[in-house]
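Methods — Computational structure assignment.
A single polypeptide chain was analysed. Its primary sequence is given first, followed by the predicted tertiary structure written as structure tokens.
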Amino acid sequence: MRKIISFVHISLDGFVAGPNGEMNWIKIDEEIFDHVGKRISKTDTALYGRKTYEMMENYWPAAGNKPGASKHDIEHSAWYKKTHKVVLSRTLREADLTNTTIISDNVSDRINEIKKQAGSEILLFGSPTATHSLIQQNLIDGYWLFVNPIILGEGIPLFKNVQDKTKLKLLTTRQFTCGVTELNYTVDRQ
């Protein structure tokens, strides 16, 4: 069965964005882009909440074709165009959306159907509201966290209204020269 892995940048105090959705505190450099690009290139399905999907859709399809596009923009744009996108939304409709599935109801059943299909891990990109919903339904199988060396004090938390304790098993760690630390966990379901 395919696994859903939450991929997110996080502050040391557990926030994925500032109080107004700010993400200007996130440190990203070529070292991180290259590292993330290797794993993402093996992923054939991306999962988003509506807001994150709209942000991605507004940038990535054309990013690699722009004059002076970076290596990262060219590679990620190509990946984005070919990957299957799953979006949790009550307002979006599938008409005119290429290679995209919209899930608006029966989330648990629909996600479990997708997890049973052939393919690689499913990466859940950012999307705090979608992440909170999937955590409550016990649908996330792992966390790929990039801990940024900053304390925000307030903002949008990664973990919100968690009902039950969730045990995690640390798979890998990596420190990047910019000060970000990668923590790769799997949910321990035993």
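Note: The mean pLDDT is 93.
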